[in-house]
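Supplementary Text 2. Reproducibility record for the structural model of the 372-residue chain.

All settings were left at their defaults, and a single model was retained for analysis rather than an ensemble. We include the record here because the model underlies the residue-level annotations in Supplementary Table 4.
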Amino acid sequence: MAGCFPQQYAQLLHETSSEEKDTITMEEQIIGADHMSIGYEVAKKWGFPQELLVPILYHHSPQNYKDTSCKLKNSVNVVYVSGIITNILYSNKPQKYHQKFLDESQSIFGFNDKIYGRILDRIVEEINQTAGLFGIHAKNHKPIEEILQEANASLSSINLTYDQMNRELIEAKAQLQKLTKELEEKNKYLEKLTQLDSLTEVYNHGYFQRILGNQISLASRKISPLSLIMTDVDDFKNFNDRHGHQTGDFILKELCALMRKSLRDSEMIFRYGGEEFAIILVDTAEHDAQVAAEHLRESIAMHPFIVQSKNHNVTVSFGVAAIMPAVDGFTKKDLIAFADAALLESKKKGNNRVTVYGEKNPSTLNLLERAG
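Retained model, structure tokens:
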């Protein structure tokens, strides 16, 4: 509210600084809505659950919550009473709110003197711990007992002036903006981590399944072709047995880096599993996908894979399949099966070759070799 209605909110702070006027009433008069309803609508738009929305809406008026949910009713009451404790810390009349806390918590929760004391003794420590969780700098509050003692001597000693409150508002806003930016950056980083294979740093199998489904739907709407290349490193198990898994891991990482350099930005590579990889080619017909696969095969076969000054020759087999989703109606599962079958045919015919899936007979789905 302070950010959206700075002038009105400044007036609100001025009108309520003496605490003679009710904040909720003044919000409705000056701004046209109170912070409960605005907070509720904003949080609702953000998709907050009912467990948070209901306390936001009723935290100043728990008596207005009429639902039968005991859990939500209890949450509303907890937030309501915590607001009273906040007024002990920040109000010009801490004695008034201290007494209100005693009365309301006893009436609502049945608290006794022992529970009162335990809550008030720990509240400042809890505030500091909670602020730390969110990276917010909280001022060093005095214990509530000391606040009440000073208030009895001089109410003015704990009064927050308008200028102080305005500075704290500006500082809090700056901290919130900084926290929001950091959170956005961390969320982007975490999202990227969930999409990548940790060893090869290409996209992982889960992301492949999601993207392939999306691209089939998009190709269907655009009435455009979509191709899939499945690849498998030849004799990789024997390679690992001879040279060790660390050398094998290095080969996979360098292989992926080599393929990324040879592919266009729109062509995405994924680790399908083990030494098998998948490449999605959007708006690409069968012939162009075959050409791309053959280029990859030649590049890999000619590339020197050097590990600890030792040169290793690596070859890869390819299976290519292309569909026109809007015309033939093939699914994601079908396309994967076609490319996989073509890859298997390359393996049967001696490795280090490209095989294109063809449909001679719809009932048998035979393979056609277009390149080798």
